[in-house]
Amino acid sequence: MRARADLHIHTVLSPCGDLDMSPRNIVRAAREKGLDIIGIADHNCTRQAGVIQELGRENGLFVLAGAEVTTAEEAHCLAFFPTGEALERFQAFLDQHLPPIPNNPDKFGYQVAVNAEEEIVHEEPYLLISALDASIETVEQTVHGLGGIFIPAHIDKPAYSILSQLGFVPPDLTCDALEISPRSSRERITAEHPYLATYAFTTASDAHYVEDIGKVYTELLLPDFSFEAIRQALRQGIPSTSKI
């Protein structure tokens, strides 16, 4: 079966995420856009993903739970996990490596997690958009050690991407795919960096506002809706990308 996946969505928990990016609004918008799979990727925090995963199950939407990690090199990477236990263990890793810089909501935005009824249940005290004190290699190894999916994010962007920060994708870095932003394409990025032609690619909305969810998506050919099937679909081919 062919599935539409938008694997890069922020929530109200990200300081740059709109306050309308609640679990119910995200799930509703994803279904209205015809998406089958979404990835919840708040900055350096996983604490909003679980509620969205539960709502997704109730509404026929498969939700990958994870985070968009900012490594010590200030490269953004997506990380998704197969179980609640793995997600909790990765959250402990994030808590350990996030610098204790207090958030200023007036300057950066609120960092709150809400329940299904949109009631605030948690507020992150430290600024989530800071870089961890862990290298990209450490993050990748930690993600895969927990059975997760690791995808360097928006690699074509001039800032906060693996190419902007390192200049190349290290050959010993195990990537399940590389994400490109909607403004680029596989053809363009591989013309600029021919060695990347051997990688699988995905594209996603990087939505911070409800109306941006599913503006672009990746088509995956899946035998079933499961974490492992998604991982294999990413690794074994080059998904086609489309705009809604």
Walk me through what this model shows.
It is a single chain. By secondary structure, this protein is α/β, with parallel strands linked by helices. It has one domain: Metal-dependent hydrolases (TIM Barrel, Alpha-Beta Barrel). It has eight helices and eleven strands. The strands form three sheets. A seven-stranded mixed beta sheet has the order 7-4-3-2-1-10-11, sandwiched between helices. Helix 1 packs across helix 2. The longest helix is centred in the middle third of the chain and has 14 residues. It is globular, with a radius of gyration of 16 Å. The mean pLDDT is 95.
Secondary structure layout plus pairing:
Blueprint: E1 2-9, H1 23-32, E2 37-43, H2 49-58, E3 62-70, E4 76-81, H3 84-97, H4 105-108, E5 112-114, E6 120-123, H5 136-145, E7 149-152, H6 162-166, E8 178-180, H7 186-192, E9 201-203, E10 216-221, H8 227-236, E11 240-243
Biggest sheet details: 7 strands, mixed
Strand order of the largest sheet: 7-4-3-2-1-10-11
The parts where pLDDT drops under 50 for at least 5 residues are none
How many beta-strand elements? 11
Provide the structure class: alpha/beta
Mean pLDDT: 95
What percent of residues adopt helix (DSSP H or I)? 25-40%
CATH fold descriptor? TIM Barrel
Molecular shape: globular
CATH C-level class: Alpha Beta
Radius of gyration: 16 Å
Name of the CATH superfamily: Metal-dependent hydrolases
The tally of helices reads 8
**Succession of helices and strands:** EHEHEEHHEEHEHEHEEHE
Oligomer: single chain
CATH architecture: Alpha-Beta Barrel
- Please give the domain count: 1
